[in-house]
């Protein structure tokens, strides 16, 4: 907590938010040598060269000025084509789309555009660390709904029913999920859609990992019957195209909502970085082959890690997407934080305690398999050794 | 070739030292299956061998000179370029021979200890072969990238150690 005298100037809202639990682990792991990190929430690939080169070229040509608030029109047209081609959803590049500074900003814009003070937003946990705080910052009230390993961390429609009150306005979905890797199937989404429709809810669907699914064809939430006009679709370039540092995402949705988001974006951000937009354009036009290659490599490493965890006797559902596994460490008798801290101290392997992703993440740790095969194998040997000492 | 074989080949093309157990885990097959596939592909000469990519300029003077030679030849009746190519590739100094489209016919890579040694090979052995009409020798001054691998050390993980 901040205790300096100047803290009296801080807003109540900001003071009510805790810094992410991931921060402490970052500080701890950063201070140590010889750490193999399975705690990284981003691809281990460098952005494909043609994408980097396209950005160079745009700079050489002098494209260093602002773009339209919603983003380069050429890029939005490509996003529109891409969403149609890959996920079968149609959005107007002119009116139903905004290019943002990462998917994170798109989530912030979406919440600020729709939430009134005191309105409730259902957050499906374990979840990405920023959802609940972003709801709070938008004046809303985050309502966590827990998912469990016995359901493969899939949200059950009855759970939404149980959480809905007259103040509920929005439900936030994330499939494939960070941290569990769980993918909701078409059937799962259809059952959720029924409840959404029944209670007249709006859905913010974070589909940043949509390209990274390994078992079944992916279903985008707005592609489900009657859901298009109830959904703000959030996506971006970070995960599929290995472009996290470029900070480029986008949101698509019904015109009235997207125009409201654009209004906030216009006053608070102006536009996403121009050189990153040029890079993203190249990624969409010529990047699909690299996406396929990277995805293949993640799929192989998923297999490696799942197999190794099984051999150690750590139970783990097979995650259908993203690049995380979320094994149960309950049999060790340690809390997820104790497990992660001791593993780091004794064997220099960094994983993220499940509890930072919400209450229902307790008893699990998140391991990212977006790291080299050699490092993964060494990390698995160390974890195995660690568990045997307990 | 089926998709499993292709996947295995792509894995070992990138890293020939991957252990069969690792290959099996990456592909979600058993160790026995991965061994069988490897043996089959070796027997069929789909996999011709396993070699290391070495930066000989580091800490040693051995074999540091490589030349690429454009060779024009007269093809032989009945056997085309193949017989001439064989005459050339049987020399152990020759690391690679390709039949090319364009202004010359064979591209030949030679490795030697010194420029003089390579020069001697070209003048005494290569250009004296019956069908060889002319040779143009290019010495490699520096290797930046070879077989998909970059000759530099700038490949460390640049990501922060823990992130959401």
From TrEMBL, chain A:
SUPFAM superfamilies: PLP-dependent transferases (SSF53383). Its EC number is 2.6.1.-. GO terms for molecular function: pyridoxal phosphate binding; transaminase activity. InterPro entries: Aminotransferase_I/II_large, AspAT/PAT-like, NHTrfase_class1_PyrdxlP-BS, PyrdxlP-dep_Trfase, PyrdxlP-dep_Trfase_major, PyrdxlP-dep_Trfase_small. PROSITE patterns: AA_TRANSFER_CLASS_1. Keywords: Aminotransferase, Pyridoxal phosphate, Transferase. Its cofactor is pyridoxal 5'-phosphate. One of its GO terms (biological process) is amino acid metabolic process. Residues 34-383 form the Aminotransferase class I/classII large domain. It comes from the Bacteria. Pfam families: Aminotran_1_2 (PF00155). PANTHER family: ASPARTATE AMINOTRANSFERASE, ASPARTATE AMINOTRANSFERASE-RELATED. NCBIfam families: PRK07682.1 (NF005816). Belongs to the class-I pyridoxal-phosphate-dependent aminotransferase family. This is Aminotransferase.
UniProtKB/TrEMBL annotation, chain B:
Keywords: DNA-binding, Transcription, Transcription regulation. Residues 1-61 form the HTH asnC-type domain. This is AsnC family transcriptional regulator. InterPro entries: AsnC-type_HTH_dom, Dimeric_a/b-barrel, HTH-Siroheme_Decarb, Tscrpt_reg_AsnC-like, Tscrpt_reg_AsnC/Lrp_C, WH-like_DNA-bd_sf, WH_DNA-bd_sf. GO terms for molecular function: sequence-specific DNA binding. It comes from Fictibacillus arsenicus.
């Amino acid at each position: 907590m901040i205790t300096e005298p100047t803290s009296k100037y801080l807003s109540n809202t900001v003071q009510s938010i805790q810094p992410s639990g991931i921060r402490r682990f970052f500080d701890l792991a950063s201070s140590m040598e010889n750490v193999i990190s399975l705690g990284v929430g981003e691809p281990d690939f460098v952005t494909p060269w043609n994408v980097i080169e396209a950005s160079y070229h745009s700079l050489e040509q002098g494209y260093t000025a602002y773009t339209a608030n919603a983003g380069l029109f050429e890029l939005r047209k490509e996003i529109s084509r891409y969403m149609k081609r890959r996920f079968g959803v149609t959005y107007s590049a002119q009116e139903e789309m905004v290019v943002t500074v990462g998917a994170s900003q798109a989530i912030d814009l979406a919440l600020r555009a729709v939430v009134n003070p005191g309105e409730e937003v259902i957050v499906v946990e374990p979840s990405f660390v920023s959802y609940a705080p972003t709801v709070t910052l938008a004046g809303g009230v985050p309502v966590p709904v827990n998912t469990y390993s016995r359901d493969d961390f899939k949200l059950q429609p009855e759970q939404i029913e149980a959480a809905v009150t007259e103040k509920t306005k929005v439900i936030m979905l994330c499939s494939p999920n960070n941290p569990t890797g769980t993918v909701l199937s078409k059937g799962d989404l259809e059952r959720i859609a029924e409840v959404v429709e029944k209670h007249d809810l709006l859905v913010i669907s974070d589909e940043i990992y949509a390209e990274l699914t390994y078992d079944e064809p992916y279903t985008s939430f707005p592609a489900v019957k009657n859901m298009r006009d109830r959904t703000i679709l959030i996506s971006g370039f970070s995960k599929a195209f290995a472009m996290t540092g470029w900070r480029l995402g986008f949101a698509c949705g019904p015109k009235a909502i997207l125009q409201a988001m654009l209004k906030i974006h216009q006053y608070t951000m102006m536009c996403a970085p121009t050189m990153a937009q040029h890079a993203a354009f190249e990624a969409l036009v010529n990047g699909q082959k690299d996406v396929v290659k990277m995805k293949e490599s993640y799929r192989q490493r998923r297999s490696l890690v799942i197999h190794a965890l099984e051999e150690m006797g750590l139970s783990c559902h097979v995650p259908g997407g993203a690049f995380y596994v979320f094994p149960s460490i309950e049999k060790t008798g340690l809390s997820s934080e104790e497990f992660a801290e001791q593993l780091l101290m004794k064997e220099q392997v960094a994983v993220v305690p499940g509890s930072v992703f919400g209450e229902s993440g307790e008893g699990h740790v998140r391991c990212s398999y977006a790291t080299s095969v050699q490092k993964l194998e060494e990390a698995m040997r160390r974890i195995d050794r660690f568990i045997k000492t307990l | 070739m089926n998709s499993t074989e292709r996947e295995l080949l792509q894995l070992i093309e990138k890293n020939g030292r991957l252990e069969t157990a690792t290959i099996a885990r990456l592909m979600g097959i058993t160790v026995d299956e991965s061994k069988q596939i490897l043996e089959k592909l070796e027997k069929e000469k789909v996999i011709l061998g396993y070699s290391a990519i070495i930066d000989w300029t580091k800490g040693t003077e051995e074999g540091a000179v490589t030349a690429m030679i454009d060779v024009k030849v007269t093809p032989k009746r009945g056997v085309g370029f193949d017989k001439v190519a064989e005459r050339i590739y049987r020399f152990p100094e020759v690391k690679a021979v390709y039949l090319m489209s364009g202004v010359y016919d064979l591209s030949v890579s030679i490795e030697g200890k010194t420029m003089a040694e390579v020069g001697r090979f070209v003048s005494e052995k290569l250009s004296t072969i019956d069908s060889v009409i002319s040779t143009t020798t290019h010495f490699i001054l520096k290797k930046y990238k070879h077989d998909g691998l970059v000759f530099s050390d700038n490949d460390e993980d640049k990501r922060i150690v823990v992130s959401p």
